Amino acid sequence: MAGLMGQSERGAVAILRKTPWMFVFFIFTGGLLGGVLGEILRALSPDGVIRDLFLIGFDPGINPPFTLNLHLISLTVGFTVRVNLLTLLGMILGIYIYKQA
Q1: Partner of 16 for a Cys bridge, out of 23, 73, 78, 101, CB 3.0 to 4.6 A?
Q2: Are 59 and 80 in contact (CB under 8 A)?
Q3: Which tens digit of pLDDT belongs to each residue from 46-85?
């Protein structure tokens, strides 16, 4: 009878394969959730020192965007990443969760 039991009936535990792509995924997801939480905090919190502490950050990236005009096609490349304390805390939490999985 044991041979007829499915995997869900045996209580198998899913194992996370720790690949570099999964590590990047956890960092990106943690940063994204921290950034969303920061934007919610920006909208809901009153002005003050605590708000400034959590929400003041920096925007590294290519600004203004780089444009290559070849007369047949025009290519514009640029990106900006908004980083604040909550984004960094989310990334650190993502790394912690990845290490614990």
Answers
A1: 101
A2: yes
A3: 888 878 887 788 888 888 889 999 989 999 999 888 888 9
